[in-house]
Design brief:
The protein is α/β, with parallel strands linked by helices. The chain contains 9 helices and 6 strands. The termini are far apart. The structure holds NADP nicotinamide-adenine-dinucleotide phosphate. The site of NADP nicotinamide-adenine-dinucleotide phosphate (NAP) has 27 residues, from strand 1, helix 1, helix 4, strand 4 and helix 5.
Length: 201
Amino acid sequence: MGESVKRLGIMGGTFNPIHYGHLVTAESARSKFGLDQVIFVPSGHPPHKRLRDNSDAEHRAMMTLLATITNPAFTMSRVELDREGYSYSYDTVNYFREQYGDGTEIFFITGADAILEIFTWKNAAELLRICTFIAATRPGFDLGDVHKLPEGWQDRIQLMRIPALSISSTDIRRRVHGGDTIKYLLPEAVENYILKQGLYL
Ligand code: NAP
């Protein structure tokens, strides 16, 4: 499976909904770190928060699929949605290590806010050993906090500033709820899906 994929990006997040900030992040990581492929992995059952229900997960998966379909280097995986129990990134990374084999180096891409909590994640030290983290920061994010992580861990975390990340899923949900436009904040297909399904009202 992974013979032609030497450097694999795993893009983890809730994606509720996915927007251009996420897509620019994945594309920047692909280009900057020479990734052959980026797999978007919508969170299934995060141990640290409650998502509403399973239909919510199906909508997030569909929107992620619609958003990634036009980039040949992007794909989406349901691995966390279909796995029973809590979704731990450690299990997800190991799943892809098995799928792709030893010849593939793995990069886990996510928001820098999530990275600050990494010491609470399952098998955090081992996770940082088996993959490199790419932490996307938004304008105004305090990088100083990342430097409070243990030194050995900091070496495994690459920070990447993404101006487009000032777009946020929370803001998009609020806009829909308040009847404001969301045009040009996310792909048109995702915008149409949200409106057609009546999400976030
Ligand atoms: P989240 O709530 O979706 O996002 C946290 C922040 O980071 C938000 O500001 C979000 O922006 C941004 N963000 C999320 N994913 C991003 C991405 N791929 N690229 C750029 N920005 C991103 O994230 P989360 O629930 O904390 O989890 C993020 C990832 O960490 C998931 O894959 C999750 O499974 C993993 N995680 C694992 C554990 C564990 O293994 N124990 C614990 C916590 C998190 P938007 O709101 O605009 O999306």
